Amino acid sequence: MRTKNIFVMLLLAGMMTASAEYAYPYSIPSSSGKSGLAFLKVGVGGRNLAMGDTGVASSNDATAVFYNPALLPLTLSRGLFFSYHNFILDVNQQYVGGNFKWLGQNYFGFGLNLFTVPNIEKRDSPSKDPDFLFDSRDFSLGFSWGKHITAKLALGIGAKLVYEKVDIDDLTGYAADFGAVYDILPTVRAGAAVKNVGPKVKFISEKFDLPREFRLGLAYHPQMEFLSGQWIATGDLVKSIDADLRGQIGMEYSYEDVIMPRLGYSFNYSDKDITAGFGLKYRDYAFDYAFVPYSSNLGNSHHLTLGLIFR
Which of 1, 13, 44, 149 makes the best surface tag, with the fewest CB within 10 Å? Predict the structure, then answer.
């Protein structure tokens, strides 16, 4: 019991320390004034993205590794999933994740996140044709743990390796995530997460902060049927080190746990607002799709997720 209490105190202390750094980003020196590795902020999972990129209190599968590791003990099932994200401007994202229970009441998850930008043109002087083409790759591999501390409170922690390569130059870094979830009422859940906490990374001669991000969220899931189905409403507040406070809301209606239409909206973003999508389930298989339109001629984003559910 004493060991458990010590661990809980250390975990909460880590969250408070990271939150303080996040709340006052101007106190953290940076040669560039901005963070790097922005791909670490791009959401994952068709369900979450269709619902406005919410998830800190509502992620119900292995995407909890990304949004809030404290949700791992609360996921509806264990399983594996693969996501393909046709992002904007020829950027592609692939994500593989999984979650499982092991060693009593301990819950674990992993996530492999890969971003690629192919055929970037490089010129040493003005010319019609490029001197050559190269690719850019961003990669992260994370492992997370979560556990119920009380009947209403769950805590989680995650660690990840990050890597970026542009042409012949690369960088390597490390980051940690901290999360907490509390059931305020049987129908209302609150979540908080501090993400991407770690030392600066160096790319060539420049040093950058990691894109630290603090999220607060609520999920409301009434215990009553509506048109023979269930629904959930979610909302997240997001503050990253290099952006203003932003908000996201989402809603999902689940008919017989077979088909799930979804809607979302993002506030204080210059390039996106409404999102939409749907989910399908058949036995131990799941499919999720999200559509995110962008403004300023950036194009539209399509996200596909395939899941295998372990009962």
Answer: 1
Give the domain range for residue 116: 2-310
pLDDT, tens digit, 9 for 90 and up, residues 36-51 = 788 899 999 999 999 9
Question: For residue 104, what are the CA distances in angstroms to 107, 146, 149?
Answer: 9, 12, 13
Both tokens of residue 10? 């250390």
Around Cβ 213, how many Cβ atoms within 10 Å?
Answer: 21
pLDDT at position 32 is: 39
* Amino acid at position 242, single letter: D
- What was the pLDDT predicted at 34? 66
**Whether pLDDT at 2 is above 70:** no
SS3 108: strand
Give the predicted TM-score (pTM) of the model: 0.83
Q: How many domains does the chain have?
A: 1
Alpha helices (runs of H) in 24-173, residue ranges in sequence order:
46-50, 64-67
Rounded distance, CA 7 to CA 3, Å? 6
Predicted pLDDT of residue 263: 98
> What are the residues whose beta carbons fall under 8 Å from the beta carbon of 101, sequence distance 6 or more?
78, 107, 108
pLDDT at 208 over 90: no
- 144, amino acid identity: S
